[in-house]
Amino acid sequence: MAARRKVFISYHYEQDRHYKNLLLAWDSKGSFDFHMRDYSADVSIDSTEGAVIKRIISTKINKGNYFVVLVGKETRKCEWVKWEIAKAKELKKKIVAVKIDRCNETPDELYGAGAAWALSFKLESINNAIKKA
């Protein structure tokens, strides 16, 4: 049986959630050489307080062994994704950056993070990046 990797997926919710869902669909069909246990914060957090939301997301990031960030057109501007990247670095998670399109700008927080990269949103590229992380 393939290994189960605990993964937190960070992404710009309004712009890129369908890519996150595609990752999970690939996983459910056994397309990866491993299985994901998703710890993302998809379900609405019942709070408007930033500190509460950050605490809940921190716990979810900490439960994962891997931190996968999807880099879409607007990701560089998303404050929550930037905060999540910084938190993953602080928690010393294995970071995997997946560019949805090679032209998308990289969030500054990923520089120097030691991330493994998938420079396209293709199954083989993502699979290889996660193996390298």
Q: Average pLDDT, to the nearest integer? A: 88
Largest sheet: 5 strands, parallel
- The number of helices is 4
Helix percentage range: 25-40%
Q: Trace the largest sheet across and list its strands.
A: 2-1-3-4-5
The N- and C-terminal alpha carbons lie at a distance of 20 Å
Rg from C-alpha positions? 14 Å
Which shape, going by the Cα principal axes?
Answer: globular
Total strand segments? 5
Element-level helix/strand string: EHEHEHEEH
Uncertain parts: none
Secondary-structure-derived class: alpha/beta
What proportion strand?
15-25%
Explain the overall architecture:
This protein is an alpha/beta fold and 133 residues long. It has 4 helices and 5 strands, in the order E-H-E-H-E-H-E-E-H. The chain has a 5-stranded parallel β-sheet, sandwiched between helices. Strand 3, helix 3 (79-90) and strand 4 form a beta-alpha-beta unit. The longest helix has 16 residues, at 13-28. It is globular and about 40 Å long. The chain starts with a strand and ends with a helix.
